[in-house]
């Protein structure tokens, strides 16, 4: 059995296959992007939960110390230590340590 194809049919078939591969890859990229977006939103919610839990623990400890002790040094430490930690974290977060990356696409990390 012989198959006789004209050059036009070969070009159309090849073009159709290329379009199919292109659409498949675009769909995979879109799915990867959607998965990354979902992961990023979960990270934000998880971070917010940890921040709230830590805050509740610190406020609870401060409340206990302020209401149940008369030692001024202990009160000052209980109130100043969380402020120092917050200042350190904010300073680290807002400090620019690198102005840009000089890496190119094929460079190692």
From TrEMBL:
Spans through the membrane: 6-24, 44-66, 72-95
Lineage: Bacteria, Bacillati, Actinomycetota, Actinomycetes, Pseudonocardiales
Record key words, sorted: Membrane, Transmembrane, Transmembrane helix
Organism: Amycolatopsis taiwanensis
Protein name as catalogued: Uncharacterized protein
Taxonomic superkingdom: Bacteria
């Amino acid at each position: 059995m012989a198959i006789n194809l004209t050059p036009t049919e070969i070009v159309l078939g090849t073009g159709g296959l290329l379009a199919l591969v292109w659409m498949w890859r675009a769909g995979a990229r879109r799915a990867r992007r959607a998965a990354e977006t979902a992961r990023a939103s979960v990270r934000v919610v998880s971070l917010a939960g940890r921040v709230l839990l830590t805050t509740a623990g610190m406020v609870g400890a401060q409340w206990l110390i302020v209401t149940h002790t008369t030692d001024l040094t202990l009160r000052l430490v209980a109130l100043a230590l969380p402020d120092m930690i917050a200042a350190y974290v904010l300073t680290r977060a807002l400090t620019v340590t690198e102005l840009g990356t000089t890496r190119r696409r094929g460079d190692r990390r």
